[in-house]
Amino acid sequence: MSVSETNPLLPRAEDLPQEPSIFLRVCHSPWLFISDRTLAIIRGLIACYLTVIFAADVDFEVVDAKRGKLFFFMMGTGSLFIQIVYYWISFIWTYQYYWDPKNKGSDVQEDHYASHPSNIWAGIRRLFRMPQTEGKNAVVFSIFYTAAVTIPFVVTIVFWLIMIPSEPFSQPDGPSSTRFHNSSADGRPPVEGGIEDHPFSRGFFKAFMFINLHAINSLVALVEIFFLNSVKKQSPSWIHIIGLIILDLFYVAWCYIGRAITGVYIYKFIDPSYKGTKPVVVSIISVTSFTVTMFSIVSALHGLREIATARGQKKRQHNEAA
C-alpha cells in the first residue's frame, strides 16, 4: 500500500489544485514516525485527559472547597477550556477522515447522508465533520488554533512570573493572609475560603491541578506545535493578532462579569479601587502586548518545525510519487 493511500488527507502535490487547508493540516503530523492512527489516538487521549482534569478541578474548587464561581473566571480555566474544545474538534476530524470509510471524501459523505436522512448518527457526523470549504471558516478556525497554542504560554508566564510574586498568598503551613483580589470594592469582607491559598498549601491534588492549569497547558501546546499538526506559520499575521487582542479584551470583560456575579475581583490588576483606573488600563495593555509578543514567538516555533521536518516532507513526497 502506498503512502498516499495511508494518508488520504494529503494527496500528492501534483494532484492538489492548491495548498492543503488548515483543516487538513491539523489532522496530519509532519513527522514520519507518527502514523495517522497514532495521531488520532494521541489526540483522543489528550482530549480525555484535559476533560477529566477540568471536571476534577471543578469538583474540587466549586463543590468540595465551596469556592463558588470564581474558578470559572481564572485565566488558567479559560485557557484549559479553549484547549479542550480544540482537542475534541481535532480528534473528531482525525477519526472521521482516517478511520471512518464513510467520511473519506465530500462526495461520499453527501451520498451517505442523503441516503440516510433520518439516521441520527449520520446527522451527528454531519454536524462534526471537517468543513469542506475554506474562506471565513478557515480564517476563524486559524484564529482559534492560534489561540489554543498561544494563550497557554501567556497564562503560564503571567501566572508564575507576575501573579505569584506580586499577589500575596497564604504560605504553606504558615499564617493565613488574604489576597487583595478577594476583597470587594464596596467594603464587604473578603470571600471566606476564596482562592487566596498558595498553590501548594492544600496537598498534592491541589498542586497537581495548579500545575495542569498553569504549566502542563503550555507543554501540551508545545507538543501540538512540534509534533501533532502540519499547520504553517499563521498568515496574514495581522488578522490573527486582531483575533488574539479581541480574545484578551473578552477575557477582561469576562472578569468584570465575574465581579458583578461574585462581588469580588478575580485579580487585583483589574480592580480600579486598588491604585486607580490608569494602572488597570496599563495592565490590560501590557498583557495584550505580551500576547502579541507570544504570538510572534509561536509563529517562530512553527517556522522552526517546518525547517526541522522539511527533509522528512521531501522524503514523503518522493515516496508518494514513486
Written overview of the protein:
This protein is mainly α. 66% of the residues lie in helices and 0% in strands. It is globular. The termini are close together. The relative contact order is 0.14. The model is unreliable at 1-9, 11-17, 105-113 and 169-196 (pLDDT under 50).
The total of helices stands at 11
The helix fraction, in percent, is 55-70%
**pLDDT averaged over residues:** 78
Overall body shape: globular
Strand proportion, as a percent range, falls in: under 5%
Q: Please trace the helix and strand order, writing H or E for each element.
A: HHHHHHHHHHH
**What is the oligomeric state here?**
single chain
Poorly predicted segments? 1-9, 11-17, 105-113, 169-196
Biggest β-sheet, characterized?
none
- The Rg value, from CA coordinates, equals 23 Å
Q: How many distinct beta strands? A: 0
Roughly how many Å apart are the termini?
Answer: 12 Å
The class by helix and strand makeup works out as mainly alpha
Quick take:
This protein has 322 residues and is mainly alpha-helical. It has eleven helices and no strands. The longest helix is centred in the last third of the chain and has 45 residues, at 277-321.
